[in-house]
Amino acid sequence: MIRFERVSVTYPDADDAALIDVDLHIPEGEMCLVVGSTGVGKSTLLGAINGHVPHFTGGTLTGRVTIDGLDTRDHPPRELAGIVGVVVQDPINGFVTEVVEDELAYGMEQLAIPPATMRKRVEETLDLLGIAELRNRPMRSLSGGQQQRVAIASVLTAHPRVLVLDEPTSALDPSAAEDVLAALTRLVHDLGMTVVLAEHRLERVVEYADLVVSVDADRTVRAGAPEEMMRTSAVAPPVVRLAQAAGWDPLPLSVRDARRRAADLRDRLVATPLTARPAHPVAGAPALDARGVVVAYGKTVAVSGVDVSVAGGEIVALMGRNGSGKTSLLWALQGAGQRRSGKVILVDGRDPSTMTPAERVGVVGLVPQTPSDVLYLPTVREECAAADAMVPAGEPSCAAMLETIVPGISPDSHPRDLSEGQRLGLALAVQLCASPSLVLLDEPTRGLDEGAKKRLATLVSQMSADGRSVIVATHDVEFVAQVASRVIVMADGEIVADGPTAEVVTASPVFAPQVAKVLRPAPYLTVDDVVDALGLDDGSERRVSS
Amino acid sequence: MTSARLPRRLHPGAWWLWSIGLAAAASRTTNPFVLLLLCAVAGLVVAARRSDAPWARGFRFYLVLGLVIIAIRVVFRVLVGARFGSIVLFELPVVELPEVTAGITLGGTVTLEGILSAVYDGLRIATLLICLGAANSLADAKRMLKSLPAALYEIGVAVTVALTVAPQLIESGQRIRRARALRGDSDVGIARGVVIPVLDDALDRSLVLAAAMDGRGYGRRGAIDARTRRLTGALLLTGVFGVAVGTYGVLDGTTPRWIGGPVLAVGCLLAVVGLRVSGRRVQRTVYRPDPWRREEWLVVGCGVGAAALMFAATEVDPANLFPSLQPLQWPMLGLLPAGAAALAALAAIVAPPVPTTTGTAAPVHIDRDDDAGVSDEPELVATT
Known about the structure:
Chain A is α/β, with parallel strands linked by helices.
């Protein structure tokens, strides 16, 4: 269906090629997963499938890409629109019309499909993706998962034979991600569609894949069956790493397969008491004490009377579906966001809303969902200098902080040219160099690859060891399992669960990390916990960290 | 016959033609009673046949704007306006302006006739504006864009995209301003700290949008050869010129008769032919186009008929349409203008009832950013 023959891509003004000598064949009706760290050329590979690279992006493509027998050299994306459907990473930016139903029809209108057929296909597709009740809704009123499904539906109506998706679940909460993946597997199974998707969260996708394509750091590409690829891959979902640690063969890819093999391990673990997660709570005044926080926008109540208290050195994960009020709560706690009523007391007994923005910086730091929002100067050097100017002398400089978080960023580069992980690193350095005692992170793992996520986890643990408290709002259950000592779950602006990580996440199948699902009822959350408890030799761990 | 009364959306073009007819009727008179009657008709039809979508709520805004226009005209007339008539209301101190202002004086005698002529003129402009407001509240501007001829499709898309950009710019501006407060610094200028990031955002977004449109087949069309392009260009230009001159002729009663209707008709014809020719090569279809049925013709007939009656009234009884100010006379409501208003009001009855829109009336809130803010976006679109 999709064939790459000796394909290399070089962008203008780039020293190195973005892809080198790719030979790849994706057969019809396969679900193909593309993995690799950020910035190695995953997007280039996906873009080359419909001719977006190089027709739209510029650059030179040597070799041949054919799709359903058509060479992308002679067929620009608009000519392939009936064959390839592309869903971009942030679908809201790719919507042309304003209402769901019109958006579904847009592609068909361009392809001059007869009105009667259009009408029929719109109805079929609305049902196929379960979005019939959204048909008259304006795009901007949809939640993230709904947007993603509308974006998929809007390319499906053209009846493409190939669907290409760039990180379809990275912004979604676990249950919305499951909805989207269920829709995709249905397309592959029922309609024989070829689906190519790039994704960092392997734990969500790998069990559905028929083929895994790994884009490596040297810009070459390997492809193979998921099991084979996971065996040698630098990144692997927890269930695979657990299997490797336990020495299971063949390698299970899904929780279900792993559970069947894990009876032994479960018995041993239930007998072994879990070594408590090292928390670093500092005795004395809490770092944050919030009572009855209410945030409302007009008639919509985003946060309704929330009480949160965080001890010094505690790492708290804030979870809950898209739109449950996590972001509003973080902003209200920082003091820059609005707060209708309630009380927030920080470590020195002051209320952040009574402090000037400059005073707040030294006490509470917030890294927003889009880290680039806090970056507005033309170079990294100027960003760092601006951050240092806000801080009394004697603190470590922002540039030094950046070097420990993400080493090797050129000070002259533009913040917008950095990779997702580097940008987050810079935003963190800028916000942390004032040494705030409370750090609030909003969706920091979105778009981060495995390596960057590991570095972030180390950094967060380090902050906690230094006695700073951290609140992380996130959808990433594996990240939560790794770092958090306590989890707060929000729904509809209220706190519905608050307790130690192991208790809260294992109580719900949606929030449970893979290891917990495999080993239930043993209260283990991560592969590292298991390895420590049983003294297993974990070969994969060394490889991942290298 | 029951199917005619089923609730359905009237073709937006029909409402526009109806309100243009109403506006043309209003342009033919300064009689305050006739004008107020026509305003009342516009309000009545809007109240009866507008939908519950956010864009339909803007009518009140046009009413207020109309009052503002009348007020401005009266104030200017008091300050500098023409001085005629004999009924003196009050005297203002006279301010002589320097030579360069070509003899304009401020203040002086204010007469009832002067004020009334300002009110009549202002009321006429306000009525035209209210007719426009009625069209905007009755017809969905975006559906109107969908009904554009194929040759104008690109313009329609550009307008649609532009309409979504304004709320997006506001949203990213707010987001970035909030984020700046996190840095704690306030000495970076607005240009550097807000405008540049917002523009960066907008550029990024438009690139993504362009790529998405390209990937979904936008711009698939057969190439048009140079001769056809020149021909359609000439046809369209001449047509538009004809429409402009013809409209002027029709609306201004003092121009020779042949400049009005005939030129307008020829202009329309040329424009239609031009659009047809250039649209012939476009390979595109329209999803759920608004049908044009009997009700559409009836509504258009009401509007155009009202205009025709007023034109007839100009012939029969011009004094009634332009009530005399010197000597001052009490304006009278003639039979023909009243008939015109009644005919226009008939649109409220012949147009089918409006279906309730379920989805768009739901509270708008933005889940994506975990925030429920910025809910005024639809209103914003309505007023642009």
